[in-house]
Amino acid sequence: MRSLFLFLALLCWQTAGAQAPQARVTGVWVRATVPGQQATGAFMTLESDVPLKLIEVRSPLAAAAEIHETRVDDDGVMRMRAIPQLDLPAGKTTQLKPGGHHIMLLGLKAQAKAGEQTTLTLVLEDAARQRREIVADAPIRALNAPHQHGEPMR
Question: Fewer CB near the last or first residue (10 Å), C or N of the chain?
Fold first, then answer.
């Protein structure tokens, strides 16, 4: 009985001292639009200490947001398509960038103007199906803006 008590006490102590796994989002930005344009892309770099899945994105700028991939099909044509989730392997960097994986903001409620900012809410899910949200401030950059790193998060 005493060894069981010691084992449980040690387990509780280790669990209490453990930090929650961390996910990091950097370099977040949204591409500016022209008047009347109904969609744009959002880009960023994601990292996680444990395997996670990006399963949802929301923004007040858009009626909907989809996770997309761009790939060259067997016929040699580059196509973009929505995917239900994006795996984020532990310890690896996952880039969401033009011409690759990215977020499409659809049904824009207003023009995305360079120099302004919007918010993106990323919903991540772990292997136990526990979800967590990360809110990112996303500057809106000119149509020809390159991907940049190190944007502040909140």
Answer: N
Residue with tokens 């990112």: 136
Q: What is the pLDDT of residues 117-129, one digit of tens each?
A: 999 999 999 999 9
Comparing CA positions, the residue from 5, 21, 12 lying closest to residue 89 is 21
Calculate mean pLDDT across residues 111-115.
97
CA distance 40 to 34: 10
Tell me the DSSP string of 97-136: -TTSSEEEEEEESS---TT-EEEEEEEEE-TT--EEEEEE
Inter-residue contact 65 to 103 (CB < 8 Å)? yes
Q: What are phi and psi of 16, to 5 degrees?
A: -65, -35
Domains of the chain plus CATH, in order, are 21-141 (2.60.40.1890)
Q: Pick left, alpha or beta for residue 9 (phi over 0 → left; psi -120 to 50 → alpha; otherwise beta).
A: alpha
